Give the backbone structure.
Amino acid sequence: MKRDVIIACDFSNKETTLQFLDQFTGRKPFVKIGMELFYAEGPDMVREIKARGHQIFLDLKLHDIPNTVYKAMKNVAALGVDITNVHALGGIEMMKAAQKAVDEVNPATKLIAVTQLTSTSEENMHNELGIMMPINESIKQLARNTKAAGLAGVVCSPLEAGLVKEACGDEFLTVTPGIRFADDAASDQKRITTPAKAKEIGSSYIVVGRSITGASDPVAAYERCMKEFAED
Ligand code: C5P
């Protein structure tokens, strides 16, 4: 599997997103489209970015009863996106239903699952969610469930990529946000690391937002990420 950098295009509208991508002359970075942009602009924008030659991770984190997720995922897979996701906390039956939809509509789409959100602390998990095990055990269990349901991998913190690979094997994808250059501010992210360290720990893909989108030279920041993370 070739490691790659996915740029989180957390922009509020299509114009800003396309202007941002236009800077990458001759390069077609892998992009992540999340809920904000998708709910504002809808599936047409996904088709447009795909038609421009970008690979897309559509980060909609579906979580509902299996039948609803199955039907929704059929529509997501029909967009021809390269990666999309559900919440592992929706359970194995729900994840199987999502994978069935992908297999029926576009088996090339890689389906992954969010384990514990990187914004969830162990304390929240115990006191609010009532999940009493250590957070790393919960992440491993959710990753194993994801594998048992037949999905391709998980979204997790780069710091957890190693333990997920240990639990589920090297081929199991780890897609990891929470990336900062050594000289960046952490902002609101907590369990973070650098592109170079993420490579060392075993991330398959890193998802990088503000370290690229907020840089004075986003193309140079992207190239720096590719150099640190994707080159052998
Ligand atoms: O700007 P930054 O690099 O922090 O952006 C990270 C991206 O990854 C954002 O789009 C954020 O929503 C997403 N993400 C995350 N943690 C997760 C899942 C998604 O930071 N567990």
